[in-house]
Specification:
The complex is a heterodimer of chains A (226) and B (293). With 226 residues, chain A is mostly helical. Chain A is built from 12 helices and no strands. Chain A is globular. Chain B is of the alpha/beta class and 293 residues long. Chain B folds into 2 domains: 219 residues, Rossmann fold; 50 residues. The mean pLDDT of chain B is 83. Chains A and B meet through helix 7 and helix 8 of A and strand 7 of B.
Chain lengths: 226, 293
Amino acid sequence: MEWGPLFLSIKLAACTTLILFLFCVPFSYVLTLLNPRLRSFIEAGSNLPLVLPPTVLGFYLLIFLSPTSALGEFLESTISLRLVFSFEGLVFASCIYSFPFMLQPILAGMQSLPRQIIELSYILGKGRFQTLLRVIIPMIKPHLVKASMMTFAHTIGEFGVVLMVGGNLPGVTRVASVSIYDHFEKMNYAQAHYTSLVLLVFSFTLLWFLTTLTASDQTRNAPKFS
Amino acid sequence: MHLNFHKKLWTESGPMPLQVTLELEPGALLGIHGPSGAGKSMLLRCIAGLERPDEGRIEVDGAVWFDSSQEIFVPPQHRKIGFLFQDSPLFSHLSVDENLKFACSDTNSRKGLLEKVGLTGLSKAYPSALSGGQRQRIALAQALARQPSLLLLDEPFSSLDPFIRTSIQNLIEDFHKRCSLTSFLVSHQMEDLLRMADRVVEVQEGKIISDLSRNQLLEQTASKSLRVQGEIIQTSDLNSYMISGNSVYPLNGMSKDSPTQRQQVEMDIELKVKEIRVVGKKESEIPGINGNK
């Protein structure tokens, strides 16, 4: 059993989830403050990874981040950072690919809050940042947990984007999904089975937990007839 | 307090301008009455800073909160206001005491407020465990916790049953008198306004169409026409009365041709209620009866 790609997948998913969480919470809040027309335009752009084939996204990211592109050249010359075929590049690509999985549940949570709750916080002397920290985040905790779990699970299962941007460098970019494909190509079915089974059990457990969490949340919020 | 502002509102039937010009003395309670969609709540939201008027000026206790000509707009968190919403929203993730702490960090003040609203025993409870009346009491305590210079009440009684409604009204009246707090009360119910407000403005389609003191309004509204059958009598001081069963109605405006002797007549009279006295029970024992109301 090859554990390296599995640990790399978990590391990639953890980094992606953390970065997206820190970015999407304030980003969603800003979106809720925008006028509906501008918000829907930005939301449509943010949801593109949901509908684009991963290879299309991977292809453009590869071109955008390659050392010959303006950004790639700038990053390499200023901070010696090369994003293609590197773990950092994988994290960047995963953040783009998993962006809607973090954004949508958080945005839904924020939009489900009554407007008066936010206004009450302002009236009681709290500014927007304080309102975000002391009212919005605590009140949408279940949505934050769901968003993080979905992002984590989705990143673990990534294949197309990861392969195109990161390639298959053992210990650097060879994550579990790429490793399964590699074993399959080499007809090493036993290894492909082991890794696949671990991923299957892991993903199922995560989804089961997520479903239980959603169900308990719905039960808690359901009207009580007593 | 000086309000003079304009805001264009969008309604189902198209744009509607909200035009407000009001002067209010410190410590007064102004009632705002009008049909749904007239712009009453928007008026309060503009004062609170939750909405920005298109142009005009809002000045409270000498402080300018909004002035379009000088591009001044003080955000709601910097206006010292208390706002009581219709549905009394509370922070569901915080206990009653934490909800008050959100507005006021002083423990003694919070205890005092809980005592005043009669909910000392519920400081550890969460909003989901409270009844509608208890939520409204906590919301009132929260609105007052910041020691506001202005209290805005947006239909605070509409979802309460009559008994709780009266007890919340008593509480607000009590706070209003004790703190001399300048207040605005929006209500559909003229009874609420007649009971509590010093002055009532009528808003229709975004415009203030009347501005009357409580007494003027009582003259106008506390009257009822009814058909009465009975006897008219004239006393030695030339005052006339209608006697109908056990009721005696003093009559004003009798003409020369009106019957003035004891005789059976049937006529329409208009009753003007100036004062209602409750007899046979101590006033203090009757919920909602307070002082000379």
